[in-house]
Specification:
A hairpin with a 2-residue loop joins strand 1 and strand 2. About 50% of the residues lie in helices and about 10% in strands. It is built from 6 helices and 3 strands. The relative contact order is 0.15. Strands 1-2-3 form a 3-stranded antiparallel beta sheet. The longest helix is centred in the N-terminal third of the chain and has 33 residues. By secondary structure, it is mostly helical. It has one domain. The chain is globular.
Length: about 200
């Protein structure tokens, strides 16, 4: 049960939570980050499971898009093959850094973008832990989305790329929700004007 003054939706305490103040924004930030990350992780793992179990040969989808099973022991775009354990340790460090940085992002767009990046990092880290490979954290990442003119990737990679680009864009131009709600400060009244 929540104590008096706590917001029933977020669990945040204090007047700000009930009035939509900073406490409420903090709760919605973590909720949005968690939801976005959860959706990316779930979609990533389900589609990778499907690809490992159903893709025996490339499957044409539309245009140059096809599903083509590939395994990656390196980084994005198949660089640094065989460095899986080092990359996995770096991924853990990145996840910790992103979680710490998440305290400063503003909902909704910054939180959603951070959730996409976190979900993608965790999705690929799950592969490093659970898939066959060279020892602890040496698993290969399952890739299957093949445009034939771009390296083969997966849903986690897409989350990292889209979320990362969104964070850069938000850093450059600001949060559209925040820009829309800004109002000019009221003009100061002229001190020489008599009271009525």
């Amino acid at each position: 049960m929540l104590e008096a003054g706590a917001d029933a939706r977020t669990g945040d305490e204090g007047e700000g939570a009930l009035a939509g103040g900073p406490a409420s924004r903090g709760g919605s930030r973590w909720w949005l980050i968690g939801m976005a990350a959860g959706v990316v992780i779930a979609a990533d793992q389900v589609t990778k499971w499907w690809a490992r179990n159903e893709l025996d040969s490339p499957m044409h989808v539309i245009g140059s898009l096809r599903f083509n099973l590939a395994f990656n022991s390196g980084t994005a775009f198949s660089r640094f093959q065989g460095w899986g354990q080092v990359i996995a340790v770096l991924a853990v460090v990145v996840v910790v850094i992103l979680l710490r940085a998440s305290r400063t992002v503003r909902p909704p767009w910054g939180a959603l973008a951070m959730g996409l990046v976190l979900g993608g990092a965790v999705g690929n880290l799950i592969d490093r832990v659970t898939q066959a490979g060279d020892g602890l954290l040496g698993g290969r990442v399952t890739d299957f989305i093949d445009l034939q003119w771009w390296p083969v990737f997966n849903i986690a990679d897409a989350g990292i790329t889209v979320g990362g680009l969104a964070l850069v864009l938000l850093g450059l131009v600001g949060d559209p929700a925040e820009v829309r709600t800004r109002r000019p400060a009221p003009a100061a009244e002229d001190a020489t004007e008599p009271e009525r």
